[in-house]
Amino acid sequence: MTKAAIKLVSFATLGLLAASTTATIANADGATYNSTGTITYQASTAVTPPVDPSDPTTPVTPTNPDGSDLTPDQAGTAGPLSIDFASSFDFGTQDITSSNMTYYAAAQKLSDGSTRDNYVQVTDNRGTLTGWSLSVEQGDFETSAGDVLKGAQITLGDGAIASASETPADVSAATTTLTPGTASGTILGATDGNGAGTNLLNFGDADGTTNSDTAVSLFVPGSSTKLAQTYTADLTWTLSDTPAQ
C-alpha cells in the first residue's frame, strides 16, 4: 500500500470518530421507550377438507364409490387433531363361487371424474409436535338381514405417506390385513417431533395414482355361505394422541 493510500484511510477513520462523537453529544438529552408485540393462539375447531393424494397442497372433493356426493356424516372430524377423510371401498359385483377369491377395490373417485389411490387423511394442528397414531377396525360383511360373509378380510396394501408438511408423519404400515372385530396396529402415525399438518396414507404410492385398482383387496373363502345380496362392512378409523412407535 502506498503512503498516499495510508493517509486516506487514516483520514476516513478520523472522520468516523468525529461523526460518532458528534452523534453522542447530540443524543445526550434523548430518551428510550418500550412497546410490545403480542399474538394469541387458540385451538382450531375447523374441519380440514380432503386434499389430493397426488398433490397434498390441493383440496379435492372425493365421492362415494357410486359417484354420489359424501353425506354429512362422512365429513371429517373437527378439532386440531382430526381424521379428515377415509375412502370407502367398492369390491364390485361378483359371481357366487365355491373357490377362494380375492377381489380388488376400485380407485377413489373425485368429483371431476378423475381417480386416485384410495387413502386416509389426518391433520395435526395442535402445534405441539407430540405425535399421534391412527388405527382401523373392520366389522363383518353383512347383509341388511344380518347374514355374515364369514372369513371375509380386507387387506390395505402398498401404504405410502404423502404430505406437504415440513415435519410429516414418519410411521406407516406397508400392508395391513384386517381381522373383523379387532383393531389394527398403527397404520399411520408420527413419533415425537413429527406429524404436523396434513398427512395422507395412500394405498398405492406416494404419487397417489400408481396402484389405484390393486392396492386394497378383499379375500373371501370359498367355504363361506354366499347369498345373492349386498354385503357391507363398517370400517372404524381411530386417531389417538399417543405417539407412534
Automatic annotation (TrEMBL):
Residues 1-28 form the signal peptide. This is WxL domain-containing protein. Residues 46-66 have a biased composition (Low complexity). Residues 30-243 form the WxL domain. Keywords: Signal. It comes from Lactococcus nasutitermitis. Residues 46-77 are annotated as: Disordered. It holds the Pfam family WxL.
